[in-house]
Specification:
Blueprint (H helix, E strand, L loop, with lengths): L9 H13 L12 H8 L7 H15 L4 H6 L5 E4 L3 E6 L12 E6 L8 H12 L8 E4 L3 E6 L2 H14 L7 H14 L4 H8 L3 H5 L18
Antiparallel strand pairs: 1-2, 2-3, 4-5
Helix pairs in contact: 3-5, 3-7
Length: 226
C-alpha cells in the first residue's frame, strides 16, 4: 500500500542485532556432502531402471552444478546447451540471485567420460533413454517405467535423496548439502573463487559462508610448525 517497511527502522535493526549478540546466534548451515560421500551415495543407485538413470543424473547435476533444489526441478531441455568436447551449459532463468530474469546466468557442467558420475555424460544418457526432447528435464516416473510429462516436485527430490541416503548408510544430509559440499570440495582442491562463483552465482562475501569448516583443518597454521 506504499507504506515504508518498519523493518528498515533503526529500532528494529537494533533489537535484531542485540538478539544476535546476546543469544549465541548461529546461522543454520547444511552439512556439506563431500566427494567421498557423494560417490558413496551414487554408488548404490540401480542403473538398470529408468528411474535409476534419472536419479543418477539428477544427483550428479545437483552436486556438480551446486544447484538449489528449485533450480534443478525447473530445468528444461530448452535450457541445455551442449559444447562439443567440453560439456554442457544450463541456462538459468529466474532464481534467488536473478529474480527479474534480466541476467543470463549459465552454469558449466564438465565432460569427463572416464569418470563414472560425469554430469554431462549422465545427462546425455538420461535424455537418450527417456527420449525427452523438450520440456522438464527431470520428471516423475510411475510404476512400469511410465514417464510423466510433469517435472519432479521439490518434495520428490527430498524423497529420492532420502531413499539413497538410507541405502548408503549416510545421515544428516539435505539437498542443500550438495551445494555446500561441492563448493567446499572445489575450494579445497584449489579452484579459484572466480570459478566457484561461475557455478554458485554467489557474491564474494556470500561464497565465503559456503566454504565449510573442513577447510580450516586443511594446512592450518600449526602444520607449518610441527
Amino acid at each position: 500500500m506504499g507504506f515504508k517497511s518498519f523493518s528498515d527502522s533503526m529500532q528494529v535493526k537494533a533489537v535484531l542485532f542485540s538478539i544476535k549478540r546476546h543469544d549465541n546466534y548461529q546461522p543454520k548451515q547444511a552439512k556439506p556432502l563431500l566427494k567421498a560421500e557423494f560417490e558413496q551415495l551414487l554408488s548404490v543407485i540401480d542403473t538398470q531402471s529408468l528411474a535409476g538413470i534419472r536419479d543418477l543424473a539428477l544427483l550428479s547435476w545437483l552436486w556438480f552444478g551446486a544447484f538449489r533444489k528449485s533450480e534443478i526441478v525447473a530445468a528444461k531441455v530448452e535450457d541445455l546447451e551442449s559444447v562439443a568436447g567440453k560439456g554442457m551449459l544450463l541456462n538459468l532463468g529466474r532464481n534467488k540471485v536473478n529474480q527479474t530474469g534480466e541476467k543470463r546466468l549459465q552454469v558449466p557442467m564438465i565432460l569427463q567420460p572416464v569418470y563414472p558420475y560425469c554430469p554431462s555424460t549422465l545427462m546425455q544418457l538420461w535424455l537418450e533413454r527417456s527420449k525427452i526432447k523438450k520440456g522438464p528435464v527431470f520428471r516423475a516416473i510411475k510404476k512400469g517405467e511410465q514417464l510423466q510429462s510433469k517435472a519432479l516436485s521439490s518434495s520428490a527430490v527430498d524423497h529420492i535423496l532420502n531413499k539413497y541416503l538410507d541405502l548408503a548408510n549416510l545421515t544428516g544430509y539435505t539437498p542443500h548439502s550438495f551445494r555446500a559440499g561441492f563448493l567446499t570440495e572445489a575450494k579445497l582442491a584449489g579452484a579459484p573463487d572466480e570459478k566457484l562463483r561461475q557455478v554458485s552465482q554467489h557474491s564474494s562475501a556470500a561464497l565465503e559462508r559456503y566454504i565449510r569448516p573442513v577447510e580450516l583443518l586443511d594446512h592450518p597454521a600449526a602444520a607449518y610448525i610441527i
